[in-house]
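Most newcomers find our protein records easier to grasp once they have seen one. Nothing more is needed to start thinking about how sequence determines fold. Here is such a record, shown just as it appears in the course material:
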Amino acid sequence: MTETATHSVPSFPQEQEQEQELDLTPNTMPEDAYSIPLEEIDVSDPELIMNDRHWSYFERLRKEAPVHYCRQSEFGPYWSVTKYQDIMHVDTHHGVYSNEPAITIAEPEEDFQMPMFIAMDPPKHGAQRKVVNPVVAPRNLQNLEGLIRRRVENILDSLPIGEEFDWVDRVSIELTTQMLATLFDFPFEERRRLTRWSDVATGSPESGVVESREQRQEELLECLQYFQRLFQERVGLDARKHFDLITMLANNETTKSMPPMEYLGNLVLLIVGGNDTTRNSISGGVLALNRYPEEYDKLRKDPGVIPNMVSEIIRWQTPLAHMRRKALEDTELNGQKISAGDKVIMWYVSGNRDTEVFENPDDFVIDRKNARSHLSFGFGIHRCMGNRLAEMQLRIVWEEIMKRFRMVEVTGDPVRIRSAFVKGYSQLPVVLHRS
């Protein structure tokens, strides 16, 4: 969960095409990152991540222009911050770099604004975050662990052996959607509606998830209507006894009178954060172990490495490619002068491959000593509030996988999501082997 198909929302906002002045149109970046002038690089092109072609672009920016200005893109002009230490600086200086009005590179839709606490600055950010933070507090995570393990056991035991199936749908989505239903106390039999709303919230017409922006808005308003009913049903309940996110929001002075679109914005944040990030790390871990079979052998010999492997999965996958900030004042970063109002993009997906921090960063190494130093959860006051829950789910998944299967074999190419924000998968064909 983070404060966590083309992906973007209004504060996970809609991707919008803009007229290009350069002789480059959206989604046409060359195969070779070194074949074009540095100033023409646009790492926000969603096709790069969808086709797994982004690595050489970020490598070049880290070497030649770690703070890089892109003058024209379909999201407008922006600065790319690609080195680990520079990203840390931006992430931990919220007085200079604001989270408002959005946390993705795309602009919020003017006619469909959805404020959410991750895209707010203090003091409102902290006040709203505090309301829902108890659901991921250590005591509640301890209470949830047994439930998560039972669900993982049931999911894994239902899978066919020796027969190809889609890991994303049967495991990654199913587990995270069950968890979301629990956190919201959402009707369990309707839990796949949460998956749909997550995909719609982070989707655009180009993704195939929705056919138009109007359809997207209509489905999100259906989400709002559904959750408004749950909200009203829980007004007056004791949040100490009914420990779910909606009861917490409905009975706290800070959030009980939220405008409807702000309520929807926070719902989208919690749904996307609890769905996309964990589900794509679950899938990414399977892909990584197949690409690095020596690491799979290492895991079989020592399952005790799983907690550290979880951190390495999250580093290697980086399920959210970036976070956005806005400069509140004229400032300087790594020799570049950034003006007040400029859009600044922290590319976590690049910082997690910085050779100055991670040795052989492109490799997947399950016992990497500094795996927990990854940037994927962010830092500072906006650090992902659900990071421990995400880690726990991944740990339990791999503990139970290793009890049952010698190998989760990837049998075909993954289908990646078309997005500059969510770095994930819509399909991953696998076959399970017991011996």
DSSP finds 14 helices and twelve strands in the chain. Confidence is low (pLDDT under 50) at residues 1-26. The CA atoms of residues 37 and 244 lie 52 Å apart.
